[in-house]
Design goal:
GO terms for molecular function: L-gulonate 3-dehydrogenase activity; NAD+ binding. The chain contains 13 helices and eight strands. By secondary structure, it is α/β, with parallel strands linked by helices. About 25% of the residues are buried.
Length: about 325
Amino acid sequence: MAARETIAAVGAGRMGRGMAVAFAYSGHPVRLIDAKPRSMAEFDRLKAETLAELRRTFALMADVGLMQADEIDAMLDRVQVTGQDDLAAALAGVPFIFEGVPETLEAKREVFDLLSRHADADAVIASTTSTILSNDLQGFVTPPERFLNAHWLNPAYLVPLVEVSPGDATDPAVTVRLTALLEGIGKVPVTCAASPGYIVPRIQALAMNEAARLVEEGVASSADIDKATKYGFGFRFAVLGLLEFIDWGGGDILYHASRYMTRATGQDRFAAPDIIEANMTEGRRGLRDGRGFLDYDGLDVGAYQKERIGAFAAMLRHLDKMPVKGD
């Protein structure tokens, strides 16, 4: 098997450490670079703390069956923790660099200036920011064509999804290279435009605020709301994507439910977007029409439904929530 490419994670906080675990687990050498200027004593303390946390994380992964305990030392040996003073040497020959410093423009500007000056000319530079658009950061990187955002979800070493968001100046080949790297370690990259909230944070902000609002309004207890989201909302969307779910039941259900909720609550936040009504008008209600948000032309519907129901059954077994079967 060919040697894995070396990865640099700049910023030794939670995200940097999570990425270090993810890449080291998959066999990549990792250079975890502390981006802050520190005294030797301060850096030594940070390095010891970082390596101790990485060891605990690998041990936890072994405890839950993701690896063997006797592999921990080999995983740790793949991670080199370095300080800002050694930045140039740490970046030499590294084809992929992930930035994970604090979420301020000033912090990003400073680190991207360093990376632009010391990284290899063809190295891909990606920010893991969850808040700042790639178009707003791209001007800090030279040349900007090699830059894009790659938003990992915590815990980074477990959650498969990475939201890849190229900027207007990003070379499409850079997106392809980064996507291939992520797929190579078992991640599921999705590409989205430079838009506030990407995909998941935008959806989950609405869902989490609505859950908090239910508590505020006294609709249900916190425990029951969490139970409802775990065994109803989350259960279904672990198998079916949100748009696939609309198609599964029919877009007309969402259309009518949205109209009812808007009238009953007097809140416009429940109103359906124009695309839902357009799909109704155009006969794109979903699976039964052969098209909706997704195209089902030529699909073996019976086999598709059987596969999805099988996935639901597997989830029930995993959660130990199989239906009670009578005699």
